[in-house]
Amino acid sequence: MKRLLIAVACLQIAACLHSQGITLLYKGGGSLNFKDPANWIQINAPQGQTPIQRAPTALDDVIISQALSGISSVAFQTDDKNPDFNIGGSSSSGPSLCRSMHVSNTDINFYPVNFVDMGAFVNVYTSNGGFVILDSGSNVGLGVFQLHGGNPAIADLQIINSTFGVLTDYTDYADIYMDSSSKARIVSSSFGGMSFGGGSLYAENSTFNTDGFTLADNSSDTILSTTIEDVANGGYLRFFIGRNSNFVSSNVTVKANSNLEFGTSGSMLNGNVSSLSYGGGPFSFIQEDQANPLPNIINGNLTVVENEALGFNGDVKISGDLIFLTIDELHDGPSYVAPVIINGQDAFDVGGVYNFEGSLSVTGCANNYCHYKLEFFGNTNSNISWPGGFPVDTLVINKTGCAKVNIDSSLYVSGATRIESGQLVLNPNDDHPYKFLCAGNVDIAQGGGLFLRRDAAGVVANMAVGGTLTDHNSTPDSTCAGLSNPYDGRITLFDGPLPLTLLDLSGRYSSNTIVLSWSTEREINTKYFTVEKSFEPQSFFPITNVPASGSTQETNNYKYTDNSSLQAINYYRLKMVDADGRFTYSKIIAIAAPVKNAVVVFPNPVNNKLFIRMAGFTSPMEIIIADAKGVCVKKLELKAGTTETSINTSDLPAGVYSISFQSGLLKNTQQFIKE
What we know:
The chain is mostly beta strands. Strand 60 (about 655-665) and strand 61 (about 665-675) form a beta hairpin.
């Protein structure tokens, strides 16, 4: 009887020990089947008790550690009928591997039998105390992790100083999916897979290489000093922060090497965003909830490289620079940007800007990419660098204090402009006559500023407004508030499109002259064309006026021959002047003139200023202007090496004059007409 009781007691103790969870170490036994008892042994067994050796159950915690076992790589297989593993729970699909798993300095793979290039699904349930920790240089190569959450005190997955998926070529079988209640913590680690998202995330000093990075709605997320970019051969990166999220970020980089779909749903991303697709797909701001659209907010720089389009769906706020980098040799010129239509006319044509291609239209827009608000905020200066000019529907400047928004090219606003605080600074550029063109109202709030600046060449920025220009500041202050125009830049108020449609401007070298040709398709009260010239693509000067046809809907052809070419590249543009004084500029063309004129004088006839360009002579030069009777009326001397100068002719009576040049052996006399 006593023997029977002892036997029963032993059976009860054995059953108790087997039903309670223990900690098992993977020691390896040559089998990939995790159920093989030879692969496992208990660690931290009570003193005097033989360590248990058996396969893990749903109650056991397992440790996979190279330091403890000497094994650097582990692979677990499921059978074909049940391709799932479960950690921290059990379900009808797949066996329960263990309650929790801690992997240290070990490569680990999960895959079904006969599918060594496919990752098995690993379900983690924290509701039953389950979790997975990878640390000390571990890596999950294959395995699609699905985190089911359920216990707010436990992170379903922790990756610390380790990697997930980046050591395998099969990135579509190394993904992480989280439901709304799950959490992941990734520190000083890397993730590589097709998809990462859902749940709540804490990431610090880490890298995500993925095509999909989407965090759940109503989640709590923190991302610090981390880069998110698409996989090397991926099709696009979809980056999205969930709605109503408690989102904290610092020094985050979002970078796409192909297409980029980007959405923050009202959360602020503290970091820089760039789409580096060279001739690739579009960069699109997205709105997940069209019924309740929230702005996309970037507290940093936004850079686009060679994308086919920059799509705006909803409002966008940025604090840093807006940059478009283009490779000119891939296109017809540096103005590779989509146009905006203002009052039925292309704003780029209105401003004298010629773009390569594009289909963005504001009038009659049906694709929802035309109507958006772009707001600049923050306490630091922002720069817009966008070749060909940047199109905006509604522009808001909301900078703290006197922080500025500077524009390298031109800015075209098809709707309204509001300068609530800070300053919009217009720096001139010769290529675009209107630095700022707004089809709607321009409202400068008290404390906000709009400043028209002048460059070193003396060119002043100009602006044109189709609506009402209102300045709520009583006294302009060029350092911050009010409409400041100290250099008398032109401010044009217009109603409807500016006149004239220029079809073409070209030129050719012929017999020591340059012949310019241009044509127009439509002229409305056009008065004349001023042909302007430069020997570098800046500091243009007028050389002649060509009368226009006036008002016509027919095609008109014009021509002018320039005799003042020197051995150099000659740059030309047209100033197209309306009867009421409004004008626009054409594009700039460059023509080589391989002639050997020692001295050229222009324009001829001349009005107020005569320009002289010459080779750099080694001796001083004497210049004498004489009237028709041979009487000297002006005389000047130039130092050796001088290549260009000008002479004021406004005080000369109308008539024919001669101008003589003498430098060493050179003696040259030409005639010009003073109008």
